[in-house]
Design a protein that fits this description.
SH3 type barrels; 8 strands; globular; mainly beta
Length: about 70
């Protein structure tokens, strides 16, 4: 399975990615701002999603909103 970011770059376990668009967090009034850095990501069973820690909270994010950095 190949996991790619919004630019088509391959993502691997432990990579660092940046959010490219402000994202509303479901079930919360929080917003993840553009440019937020996620370090040490984990891949999931779905090739369109990754897991990453944002402000001490583990979240699942769609790869179409991320770029490798």
């Amino acid at each position: 399975m190949e996991v790619k970011d919004s630019n088509g770059t391959l993502l691997n376990e432990g990579d660092t990615v940046h959010i490219i668009k402000d994202l509303k967090v479901k079930g919360s009034s929080n917003v993840l701002k553009r440019g937020t850095v996620l370090k040490n990501i984990r891949l999931t069973d779905n090739e369109e999603e990754i897991e990453g820690r944002v402000e001490k909270t583990m979240m699942v994010l769609k790869t179409c909103f991320l770029k490798k950095g």
